[in-house]
Amino acid sequence: MSLSHPPYRIAPSLLSADFARLGEEVHHVIEAGADWIHFDVMDNHYVPNLSFGPMICQALRPHAVKPDGTPVPIDVHLMVQPVDALASAFCQAGADLVSFHPEASAHVDRTLQVIRGHGKQTGLVFNPATPLDVLEWVIDKVDLVLIMSVNPGFGGQSFIPSALKKIEQARRLIEASGRDIRLEVDGGIKVDNIRAAAQAGADTFVAGSAIFGQPDYRAVIQAMRAQLAG
Question: CB under 8 Å to 23, separation ≥6 — which residues?
Fold first, then answer.
């Protein structure tokens, strides 16, 4: 796959940000060149951790803007079960895109319709050991496919190499559909492996500790873009 298509997006994950300064962190990472803000929602049920609710998303929505006032998309990844009520709540709280795990939804097609009914973009998330089978039946309602390259629930984990094969498979399904669907990867993405993920077919990259764990966010994002540019 050509590394020049489609345009890349870097989506820093707030899970690794300083929770005491979330508004400032959003400003700083956008000024450093972030394309999206990735919002990891954990419920201590589907995954063994607890993070942000819709009120935090609503509070941060005014901060997710570029210096010229252009809104920056908020990319909400729901690690919750059940899905529908929280999906609706995050849509109302200012999310631009809401993605969820198909095994956490009783009716995947219905959940996608719930999100679309709010005028938002939809995403499906696949864990390291979850097959892509369901995608075939709902790809006409999906705007993003998110491949997890770690098991969900914790930040700071190492990239699972087999995710590259799944990214390749997802890219083939997307291209066969003929639809404009973004292919995102989340988990252990760093400067030294972002190019391999792009070569496998990913075009959107979630990075948490690789960015927020460093003193200079701009330097990390620029180094990632340099890798993507080859």
Answer: 59, 60, 63
Single out the catalytic residue among 40, 43, 75, 96: 40
Catalytic (active site) residue 35: no
Domains of the chain, CATH where assigned: 9-229 (3.20.20.70)
Nearby residues of 132 by Cβ (< 8 Å), 6 or more positions away:
126, 166, 169, 170, 173
Q: What is the number of other CB atoms lying within 10 angstroms of the CB of residue 45?
A: 12
Give the tokens for residue 104. Answer: 């956490």
* Catalytic choice (43, 143, 186, 203): 186
Is residue 43 annotated as part of the catalytic site, yes or no? Answer: no
- Measured CA to CA, the distance from residue 144 to residue 161 in angstroms comes to 21
- The radius of gyration of the chain from alpha carbons, rounded to an integer in Å, stands at 16
pLDDT of residue 154: 74
The vertex-9 CA angle with 5 and 15, nearest 5°, equals: 150
- Residue 230 above 70 pLDDT? yes
DSSP 201: T
H or E stretch covering 121 = strand 121-126
Place of tokens 């590259």: 164
pTM score: 0.95
DSSP for residue 129: T
225, two tokens: 């873009």
Identify the three-state secondary structure at position 199.
helix
